[in-house]
Amino acid sequence: MSHAPGIVSFRVRYADTDQMGTYYNARALEWFEFGRNELLRALGRPYRQWEAQGLRLPVFEAHVRFLGPAAYDDLLTLTTSLAREGRAKLRFESRIEQADGGEAVCEGWTVHAVTDPGGRAIRPPAWLIDLADGG
Amino acid sequence: MSHAPGIVSFRVRYADTDQMGTYYNARALEWFEFGRNELLRALGRPYRQWEAQGLRLPVFEAHVRFLGPAAYDDLLTLTTSLAREGRAKLRFESRIEQADGGEAVCEGWTVHAVTDPGGRAIRPPAWLIDLADGG
Amino acid sequence: MSHAPGIVSFRVRYADTDQMGTYYNARALEWFEFGRNELLRALGRPYRQWEAQGLRLPVFEAHVRFLGPAAYDDLLTLTTSLAREGRAKLRFESRIEQADGGEAVCEGWTVHAVTDPGGRAIRPPAWLIDLADGG
Amino acid sequence: MSHAPGIVSFRVRYADTDQMGTYYNARALEWFEFGRNELLRALGRPYRQWEAQGLRLPVFEAHVRFLGPAAYDDLLTLTTSLAREGRAKLRFESRIEQADGGEAVCEGWTVHAVTDPGGRAIRPPAWLIDLADGG
Predict the structure, then answer these.
(1) Vertex B106, ends A124 and B132: CA angle to 5°?
(2) For position C58, which CATH number holds?
(3) Is 50 exceeded by the pLDDT of residue B82?
(4) Could you give the ipTM of this predicted complex?
(5) Which of A24, B68, D56, D120 could form a disulfide with A18 if both were Cys (CB 3.0 to 4.6 A apart)?
């Protein structure tokens, strides 16, 4: 079971574009990060607080499907949702569409380990399991 | 059947790092691009020539598994290989390791469509099929 | 004479940070671009319309003074203003502060040529001179 | 008095380009960092050793003049030199040209403070003053 998704909008910057006239592929992963940040904030658990509590959430695996172009200044809508992946990892699903018309831009997911500041996997605290399970 | 892989080395820049003290996840996709560029050059078919001939190779799908840290100035070894994906796409496999010690940093793949400059999928020319088939 | 400045806010992403725990220096120039985009939109002349009309505004010179740190998720306020630089160039002044407390993060400027799509300098149209002169 | 400059070459990546078909302006600062890293290594004082000794070299001010285009895969030559700026700062001068033909791409400089890990300015050690003075 996953949470109601978080939705944010942003515009493509010149910095995001490449010579092909669309967004450069690696920028999708930066956008996914933006969506995760804002989802966790919307859920009342901004990630910076996790770090202050000694939790880290390094990316373990990432996947992107590139579905359509996005040009400079296009307004895009990014939808992010959170779920659990197995017993000790988190999974964020991301989807980006053109705000005007809804054409797909890209979608994908990232799976994150839950670790201490030294990078050792730890058992997620109860509030985090509840968060991921939508509790 | 895939080609003998291309191998390049590079060092992690401060620009690649993040607050966690390792490389930021999206940088892996920039590194994979570097490996593709140099593999195609080593095979005698630099990608810029493809563009001059009216071919484009947009990324269709990308996958990254993050396997270990890489700090500022670490010397990394990037191995890239090329294969065909179905009848009309290309697949590059990428793996990055610490040059000193060989610890895994990340690995993954990108699948690319073959299109004309307008973005329409086209039948790959014979030389490209040969290249991907290792011919 | 310059325009009333445009003001936007944004948060520092993990992608913006580096191993030193603050924002990586080159990101300041990406942020300045964001400010220019939003200032021109606020003035009723979004830059994408300029491009559609055959105008380009390549950066000619850039300057940044780094004044203080900004950590992941810090909320920053970016103030941008526009003026003319000589007869044929534009100058944007940028300043970034912590939204909470107002401590300076960085400031600087970019000077832009006005060119045709082929990169040749052209005489700025009257509406652009008016815009830069605050008319 | 400054050192004999360090020279490195690199190719423009797709990641560096933008919709205008040349390199995105902020990338110049990433390239300048690459030049600084390799100059200090060539001088026998790689920056990572400075950090291990408790020195930091944050960018204090940066300046770039954009002089000409650079397209995907262009081979560029980056020349970097080091000098002292006042009593307690360092200044790196950077210049990037097309390797083939020598046309100017961009040039600029960065001025760096010398600090401890907490960001407090410190008196540069003698070896660092010698390094900057070419001794």
Answers:
(1) 140
(2) 3.10.129.10
(3) yes
(4) 0.94
(5) A24
Which bin fits C37, alpha (ψ -120 to 50), beta or left (φ > 0)?
alpha
Residue A1 lies in a domain: no
Task: With CB atoms and an 8 Å threshold, state whether B17 touches C18.
Answer: yes
Rounded Cα distance, D66 and D105, in Å: 6
Q: How far is CA D44 from CA B61, B72, C79, D39, D127, in A?
A: 42, 17, 42, 9, 11
Say which residue the tokens 């590139």 belong to.
A66
* pTM: predicted TM-score of the whole model, two decimal places: 0.96
Residue C3 has pLDDT above 80, yes or no: no
C1 domain-assigned:
no
Q: Which residues in chain A have their CB less than 8 angstroms from residue B56's CB?
A: 20
Residue type (1 letter), B51:
E
> C132: part of which helix (H) or strand (E)?
helix C126-132
Q: Based on the structure, what is the number of domains in chain C?
A: 1
Tracing tokens 């009216």 back to the chain, one arrives at B54
Q: What is the DSSP string of C7-64?
A: EEEEE--GGGB-TTSSB-TTHHHHHHHHHHHHHHHHTT--HHHHHHTT-B--EEEEEE
The CA-based diameter of chain A, rounded to the nearest angstrom, is 47
Choose between A95 and D87: higher pLDDT.
A95
D19 and A15 within 8 Å at the Cβ level: the answer is no
| Cβ-Cβ contacts under 8 Å, C33 against chain D | 25-26
Identity of the residue in D13, D33, D34 whose CB atom sits nearest the CB atom of B33:
D13
Q: Which domain holds residue D18?
A: 6-133
Q: Which two tokens stand for residue C41?
A: 């939109």
Q: Is residue C115 part of a domain?
A: yes
In this structure, which amino acid lies at residue D116?
D
Least CB–CB distance from A15: residue in C14, C30, C51: C30
- Whether residue D73 is contained in a domain is answered as yes
Tell whether C62 is within 8 A of chain D (Cβ): yes
Q: Which stretch of DSSP H or E encloses residue B104? A: strand B104-113
C75-132 per-position pLDDT tens digit: 999 999 999 999 899 999 999 999 999 999 999 999 999 999 988 999 999 999 999 9
D24 at interface of A, judged by CB pairs closer than 8 A: yes
Would you say residue A4 has pLDDT above 80?
A: no
- Kindly list the distances between the CA atom of residue D134 and the CA atoms of A17, D22, D124, D127, in Å, as whole numbers in the listed order: 41, 36, 15, 10
* Cβ-contact A97, A104 below 8 angstroms: yes
Quick one: pLDDT at residue A2?
44
| Mean pLDDT for chain C overall | 94
- Closest by Cα among B11, B2, B21 to B78: B11
